[in-house]
Design brief:
Number of strands: 8
Distance between the termini: 19 Å
Structural class: alpha+beta
Strand order of the largest sheet: 2-3-1-4
Strand content: 15-25%
Shape: elongated
Largest sheet: 4 strands, antiparallel
Radius of gyration: 26 Å
Helix content: 40-55%
């Protein structure tokens, strides 16, 4: 390690023996060892999890270039998340910091932690004992298949002309499909309400479309994060899956538990 290396901050957490022990075995985005540092003014229960990274990758100019490199970004995101997840698995309350939160030196990191100590403490107090669960709701209603146009060589039972009869068929099919979508959309809204009663907070993310939605069948109608007490994770999962099974055409995916990324307001870097 040299004095020219930058300090990459991964998370704010309560310093516990378990968290300290977990950090001692971790490696970060540059393969660097992870350690916990205290606020500048005095040691205490609050700490940054940090690692020293090279300016050649994490100073302003090279970092901006790296942000356009998808392979570099994927590797960095995975490494960042691995550090945060391991710290959270130690049982400590963890506030994940945004990707590439970098300080010029350790003194700068300690000062930033000191300045926002009360703010961080209030967030950690709120999140202690809670985890994040992701919930995606997919709708795939049973839609009426396209109906063939009437045979122009045959009379219609209604006595209507062929063109008029075909329009009646199309409108009937459209109404049926609209009703199918309305039913499943209402069920999705009720499912979201049910999830809200089982959690203490919710963050609504934008539903995924196009390539972001992957190969999952159906339309993504909900893509939310829920803050759930750690001891209610199983009840949340069981209750939501049971509610989804009650409505044909509705499917739910639950991921996690994660560190509470969606509920940690991110500090601005002070590089």
């Amino acid at each position: 390690m040299t004095d020219t290396q930058l300090v990459y901050a991964y998370a704010v957490l309560h310093r516990t023996p378990e968290a300290t022990a977990a950090a001692a075995h971790l490696r970060g985005v540059a393969g660097e060892p992870i350690r916990l540092v205290d606020p500048a003014s005095a040691p205490g229960p609050l700490a940054f999890a940090v690692g020293h990274v090279p300016p050649g990758d994490y100073d302003d100019v090279p970092l901006r270039a790296h942000l356009d490199d998808l392979d570099w970004m994927e590797s960095t995101v995975r490494s960042h998340h691995a550090v945060v997840s391991a710290l959270a698995a130690s049982g400590a309350a963890v506030l994940p910091l945004r990707l590439a939160t970098v300080y010029r030196d350790e003194a700068g990191a300690r000062e930033a932690l000191d300045i926002r100590r009360a703010y961080f403490r209030s967030l950690l107090d709120r999140l202690t004992g809670h985890v994040e669960l992701g919930v995606k709701i997919y709708a795939a209603p049973d839609l009426a298949p396209p109906e063939a146009a009437p045979d122009p060589g045959r009379d219609t039972a209604t006595g209507l002309g062929v063109g008029r009869a075909y329009q009646v068929i199309r409108r009937r099919r459209q109404r049926r499909n609209e009703e199918a979508w309305r039913t499943v959309a209402q069920a999705a809204a009720r499912l979201t309400e049910t999830a809200g009663t089982l959690a203490v907070d919710r963050v609504a993310h934008t539903p995924e479309r196009g390539s972001l939605a992957g190969s999952a069948p159906g339309t993504n109608m909900g893509n939310d994060a829920y803050l759930v007490p750690r001891d209610r994770v199983d009840a949340f999962r069981t209750g939501l899956l049971a509610a989804a099974r009650a409505t044909p055409g509705l499917r739910v995916e639950i991921t996690g538990p994660w560190a509470p990324y969606s509920f940690a307001l991110q500090p601005e870097p002070a590089a």
